[in-house]
Amino acid sequence: MEYIYAALMLHELKRKVEASDLEQVLRAAGAEPDQARIKQLVSAISNVNLDELISQAAVMPVAPAAAPAESKVEEKKEEKKKEEGKEEEEAALAGLGALFG
């Protein structure tokens, strides 16, 4: 994967993707370049329009976060507590009315 990243970085810097440049980038990143892989990559992308390829790359959809689902559960719990609290208040008020009525 680091070979692809190095080639994309050279392309982004508007430099021609050549074996010597790829080797320099990989060495600078701390990798030990494999000459066979470098030659294979250079020959594979020599006839490819990288700008077009990058623009057509599919974007991976992001999975929805779990937090909203949890907040809905918490909201339902809060609603139940509020309803229970209202029922208790109504029962207490009804009991007080019996004292005076």
From TrEMBL:
Gene Ontology molecular-function annotations: structural constituent of ribosome
Low complexity biased stretches: 92-101
The keyword S-adenosyl-L-methionine belongs to this UniProt entry's keyword annotation: no
GO biological process: translational elongation
Swiss-Prot/TrEMBL keywords: Ribonucleoprotein, Ribosomal protein
Sequence ranges of Basic and acidic residues compositional bias: 71-85
One GO cellular component, as annotated: ribonucleoprotein complex
One Pfam match: Ribosomal_60s
Gene3D superfamilies: 1.10.10.1410
HAMAP family in alphabetical order: Ribosomal_L12_arch
Binding partners and assembly: Part of the 50S ribosomal subunit. Homodimer, it forms part of the ribosomal stalk which helps the ribosome interact with GTP-bound translation factors. Forms a heptameric L10(L12)2(L12)2(L12)2 complex, where L10 forms an elongated spine to which the L12 dimers bind in a sequential fashion.
Function: Forms part of the ribosomal stalk, playing a central role in the interaction of the ribosome with GTP-bound translation factors.
Family (UniProt): Belongs to the eukaryotic ribosomal protein P1/P2 family.
Protein name as annotated: Large ribosomal subunit protein P1
Organism field: Candidatus Korarchaeum cryptofilum
Gene expressing this chain: rpl12
